[in-house]
Each structure stands twice: as C-alpha cells, then as structure tokens.
Amino acid sequence: MTNMLSQMGLEAALRDVGASRYHSLHPFHKLLHGGKLSKTQVQAWALNRYYYQACIPIKDAIVLSRLPDAASRRVWRQRIVDHDGEAPGDGGIARWLRLAEGVGLDPAYVESTAGILPTTRFAVDAYVHFVRDRSLLEAVASSLTELFSPTIIAERVAGMLANYDWVSKDTLVYFNARLTQAPRDADFALEYVKQHATTRAEQEKVIDALRFKCDVLWAQLDALYAAYVEPGHIPMGAFGSDEALARCA
C-alpha cells in the first residue's frame, strides 16, 4: 500500500479497528455486564484491572517525556493528574481502589498486586514497554482505545447496577469522570496522529499500534476467562488459588 489515506480515511480505519477488536466484544465483558458473574469473578476483574489502571500514569509519563513541544505536554500531563490526582485519595487510581473495596476486596491487597494473573502483568508491562520503545507517533496512537470507551462505560455501569445488588453507584464512581476525560484525551490523540502520520507507512503504524492496544486489553480478559470462568484453572499465587487463600488466612 503506497497511497496515503486522507485524514478522514485514517480516522475511519482506526474506528474500524475498534468496531472489530475492542474488548467490549469479549465474552467476559458480556458476562460482567449481563450479571452472569459471581462476586468472586467480579472481584478478580477489579483486582486485575487495577494493575492496568495503576500503570496508565506511568505510561503517560513516558509519553509526556517524549513530546517535544510545551503545548502538547500541557495537554498530555492532564492525563497523569486525572489518574494520580492532586493529593492522596484523589484521582482515578484512588477511585478504582474504592471500586475494589466496594466489591469486597482489601485495598492494601489490591495495591500490592500480589494476586494478579501472570498474563495481566505481562500484557500491561508490554504496553508500557511499547510506549517506551516504539515511535512517539505509535505511542500516542496506542491510546486511541479511548475513542471507544464511553460506550463500554455506559454499558458497564448500567449492567452492573441492574444486575448486582451488592454494587452501588458510589462503588462505580470511577467511571463518572472517565465519560468526559476519555473523549477529551481521544480527541487530542486522534488529531495528533492525523497531523503527524505523513506517509502511508506511518499511517499503517498508527493503525497497528491501535490493534496492539486492543490486543493488550483482550489478552487481559482472556486470562480472566481462562482462570475464573472456564475451564477455571487459577495459577498458583493468583487471587482465589489455594496458595493465595493460605497466605491470606
């Protein structure tokens, strides 16, 4: 492929990636939103997702350090503030710990990441390494799953409140801010890649970066499904395993 896509064409190609590969399509999410998971399975999701949430500002700090102009850095650094907060107890990570506690987990245990699945750690670490090692353009493009997050957030909140009587609006407060933060962040990143992908090869790298990020999110749910749904083989040391239960006893 040698012909450049128009900016509209590149955006359409990126949105096609989300339509076919975003993790809203994963069977685990369908079970979660449909009220088909046990409390233990929901806890496993909240625990493992925490590691992803906690690494997002690390990823964003790497991108921030690579942006060459002050205007872009001013925009991007807001992502770190959104997740880390301005003070202890503030920000998205603190709100995710509130979610974890709301579904019955010990926040200190969640923060330790001792019980997460190996695949969760490998997938999230791979994302951080991707942002560190690939081009700045690819690093920015990999964040574009935020184009699709408002839809899954709306489905998740409505589904969990309707189907789990032990989940409250206060438990899910993390998602309130993301309904405005994610579109704002996605708008900047989308405009950035449309402006800075100036060859067809660069456009393909942008599309591939978004595919990679979708794979990172999908792999995390694959691991949850395999460990806690079917066939239900929990790795040693992970949440719910005999070793983890003995350690917590």
What does this structure look like?
The protein has 12 helices and no strands. The chain has helices at residues 7-21, 27-33, 39-66, 70-84, 92-102, 107-112, 118-133, 136-141, 149-163, 174-196, 200-228, 242-248. The longest helix has 29 residues, at 200-228. It is globular and about 55 Å long. The relative contact order is 0.18. The model has no long low-confidence stretch (mean pLDDT 95). Belongs to the PqqC family.
Q: What is the CATH architecture annotation?
A: Up-down Bundle
**Oligomeric assembly:** single chain
Under CATH, the topology is which?
Answer: Heme Oxygenase, Chain A
Number of helices: 12
Distance between the termini: 59 Å
Residue runs with pLDDT of under 50 for 5 or more positions: none
Task: Supply the number of structural domains.
Answer: 1
